[in-house]
Design brief:
- By secondary structure, the protein is an all-alpha fold.
- It folds into two domains: 82 residues, Endonuclease Iii, domain 2 (Orthogonal Bundle), CATH 1.10.1670.40; 107 residues, Orthogonal Bundle (Endonuclease III, domain 1), CATH 1.10.340.
- It is 56% helix and 0% strand.
- It has 14 helices and no strands.
- The N terminus is likely disordered.
């Protein structure tokens, strides 16, 4: 995970880190070597989801390049549902988006423009309600919705059991013989409640156990960071 943008308004996660350290000696060691949690909310929900779609299935470097080109297509380099809906598929593809991703971006703009995702509703919705609101949109699955909840809304008790980076680190730090399945992950993380998202962040931020294995989160973090 790479934090490229300073976060002066970062919430204080000290209480969460202290709780997790008391609850789990293994995680306490991870927290000591990782340093303070720098999760910070993002208000530009539409832009964050656009970035997530742009960064799917491509390298971090490529995602940053395409995202930069995409932003420049919008007034003041700020993607909004109205601005994006006016961009043709050809224009989106000129920025490096595939035809499929261009369709996803247009679908997202239509959902936001149609009032399906007014920002004021998120705070009143449960985690699962947010997930179920997002996944009908083309290009957004459960994993992307969970990343949105963690990195954009800063919901504290998410556990993305299918994330490769998280599973890789759990296998390493907890000395498991094989990658943990969902049932194993849920059982192991029970002691992290109500801060499973924060525990997950610390594990993501820890050094990758094997060279070249960064896990699924790296591109997502880059794709939804503040720019």
């Amino acid at each position: 995970m790479i934090d490229l943008i300073a976060k002066p308004n970062c919430p204080d996660w000290t209480k969460a880190a202290a709780y997790l350290s008391r609850a789990d000696p293994v995680l306490a060691g991870v927290i000591r070597q990782t340093g303070p949690c720098t999760l910070s909310p993002r208000k530009d929900h539409f832009g964050a989801l656009c970035q997530s779609i742009v960064g799917q299935q491509i390298s971090v470097a490529a995602a940053l390049t395409v995202w930069g080109r995409f932003r420049k297509l919008c007034p003041a380099s700020r993607p909004t549902p109205r601005a994006v809906s006016k961009l043709s598929e050809e224009t989106l593809r000129s920025a490096g988006l595939s035809r499929q991703k261009a369709t996803y971006i247009h679908s997202l703009a239509a959902a936001f423009g149609g009032g399906a995702f007014p920002a004021k509703r998120w705070a009143a919705m449960s985690d699962e309600e947010v997930v179920q609101a997002l996944i009908p949109v083309k290009g957004i699955g459960r994993w992307t919705a969970e990343m949105f909840l963690i990195f954009v809304l800063n919901r504290t008790d998410l556990l993305p059991v299918d994330d490769l980076g998280l599973c890789n680190r759990v296998k390493h730090f907890y000395h498991l013989d094989e990658y943990p399945n969902a049932k194993t992950m849920v059982k192991l993380a029970e002691k992290w409640r109500p801060y499973r998202s924060i525990a997950t962040w610390f594990l993501w931020r820890s050094p990758a156990p094997k060279a070249g294995v960064a896990g699924g989160v790296a591109s997502t973090v880059t794709a939804i960071k503040k720019v």
